[in-house]
Design a protein that fits this description.
The chain is α/β, with parallel strands linked by helices. It has nine helices and 18 strands. It has helices at 5-13, 41-54, 86-106, 124-139, 149-155, 182-195, 239-244, 308-321, 370-383; strands at residues 31-37, 59-62, 78-79, 117-121, 145-148, 170-174, 178-179, 199-201, 206-212, 215-221, 224-233, 252-264, 272-274, 281-284, 289-300, 330-341, 347-350, 356-360. Strand 10 (215-221) and strand 11 (224-233) form a beta hairpin. The model has no long low-confidence stretch (mean pLDDT 96). It binds flavin-adenine dinucleotide. Residues 37-43, 62-65, 69-72, 74-78, 205-206, 234-238, 242, 257-259, 293, 336, 362, 364-368 line the site of flavin-adenine dinucleotide.
Length: 416
């Protein structure tokens, strides 16, 4: 079924009786060409591009909970490609380009809204760093614009420009950045993959790997054993747990990141704004709520809930940036588990076990990466070679000293 304005109109006239479920609920088959573990954004995008771009449709996506219940439905929905390092920028720019055409591509309204992202500058040294970043972005084919203090004042008059401790001196804008309705991305990819023959199996937890003689030939699940020619792990915050089933230790730690939504307010924020003197980012949803977040909780955890000191820290960042936020009531907050890698960059790679592939380490920037991650992982699975924009995302890069440390903070995952 194709969605269109005409279809909505027709259904409205006929009592909405013609809508079909967005994806099927199939029983798992005994064997697949590819089994993808994890029905988050990345797993579903991988299945979609495997089917659409490579014609590989004998694929199952195994999800232990429900589609959209993981980080893909828990993030603050920001998309951008304002990276600096060569290993990253081309990848994230490919992702932004895929976002720009995604809704037409999978025929689903994901509310892609390129309302722009503005990173604020608070010191001369920070301006130098942002000029360098902006130049790197432009050289990689992305867009970047350096704004003066006056320009920022005009676009965001509600910010605290004269805060004695964190005066705002300008900003780096990426106009093509913005936000996307996160869970709709999962549903859109699920629908697109399902309609091409992919089996999406919910409530199916992978509990073990079938490995012998250095070859992975399937998985044990809560719904029985499923054989596969290729097993593709894509489980975000659960990466270390799932890969330990294959006896692998990853350069990843799991931490909680929290998100916050205020009560609905009249439109005030033109796009995404990030504080440059602390960790705080904010946008406004179409329903009017201010959607914001900050740092991860500093300790390792697999619990999908955060703690109060981080709530206080995030709210302090918000107050320093836009004091009027103190008048808004907090409506909801939640946590998600982040797979924080040692250099803050992800992995899309084969493992030393034949037939076992790994995608993870997205830290708290993996939502924007969803389309390119699926695109590149599908390429790797179909052709057994890395996609040209993801060649640096190898598991052995720490052994080779080839880190992609965008923040330059070293092997301290909680700081990336
Ligand atoms: C609060 C918060 C804010 C964020 N904000 C942003 C942002 O603004 N921009 C941005 O780019 N990124 C952001 N992120 C990060 C982003 O959401 C993640 O990096 C990304 O969603 C991870 O990929 P995924 O969608 O595939 O993960 P998930 O949706 O978590 O998918 C992984 C799936 O694997 C399943 N799974 C785990 N173990 C098993 C198993 N044994 N068997 C079967 N299934 C299993 C899980 O149930 C889960 O559904 C944020 C994250 C959080 C939590």
């Amino acid at each position: 079924m194709r969605y269109s304005a005409l279809k909505v109109f027709k259904e409205a006239l006929t009592g909405h009786k013609g809508w079909k479920p967005v994806w099927r609920e199939p029983e798992p088959k005994a064997e697949y060409d590819v089994v993808i573990i994890g029905g988050g954004g990345h797993g579903l995008a991988t299945a979609y591009y495997l089917a659409k771009e490579h014609g590989i449709t004998n694929v199952a996506v195994l999800e232990k909970g429900w589609i959209g219940g993981g980080n893909v439905g828990r993030n603050t929905t920001i998309i951008r490609s304002n990276y600096m390092l060569p290993g990253n920028e081309h990848f994230y720019e490919l992702s932004l380009k895929l976002w720009e055409n995604l809704e037409q591509d999978f025929n689903y309204n994901a509310m892609v809204s390129q309302r722009g992202i503005l990173n604020l500058i608070h010191s001369d040294a920070q301006r130098d760093a942002f000029v360098r970043r902006g130049n790197a972005m432009v050289m990689a084919g992305a867009d970047a614009e350096l704004l003066s203090e006056e320009q920022v004042r005009k676009e965001c008059p509600f910010l605290d420009f004269d805060n004695a401790r964190f005066p705002i001196k300008g900003g780096l804008a990426q106009r093509r950045g913005g936000s996307v309705r996160h869970d709709a991305v999962a549903w859109g990819y699920a629908r697109g993959a399902d309609s091409r023959g992919v089996d999406i199996i919910q409530n199916c937890e992978v509990t073990g790997m079938v490995i012998g003689n250095g070859v992975c030939s399937g998985v044990e699940t809560s719904q029985g054993t499923i054989k596969a020619k290729k097993v593709a792990v894509c489980v975000a915050g659960s990466s270390s747990r799932v890969m330990s089933m294959a006896g692998m230790r990853l350069p990843i730690e799991s931490h909680v990141l929290q998100a916050f939504v205020s009560e609905g307010l009249k439109p005030i924020l033109p796009g995404v704004v990030t504080f440059g003197a602390g960790h705080f980012y904010v946008s406004q949803s179409d329903k009017g709520g201010l959607v914001f977040g900050g740092d991860i909780d500093g300790y390792n955890s697999y619990a999908q809930r955060g703690n109060l000191p981080v709530v206080e820290d995030v709210c302090e960042g918000g107050m320093a940036l836009m004091p009027m936020i103190g008048r808004a009531r907090l409506l909801r907050m939640w946590g998600g588990i982040m797979d924080m890698s040692m250099d803050g960059s992800p992995f899309i790679d084969k493992t030393h076990i034949n037939g076992l592939y790994f995608n993870g380490g997205w830290c708290y920037g993996g939502f924007k990466a969803t389309p390119a991650s699926g695109w590149c992982y599908a390429h790797l699975l179909a052709r057994d070679e890395p996609h040209p924009v993801a060649t640096e995302y190898r598991l052995d890069r720490f052994q080779r000293g080839a880190m992609i440390d965008e923040k330059g903070v070293g092997a301290q995952p909680n700081l990336h």
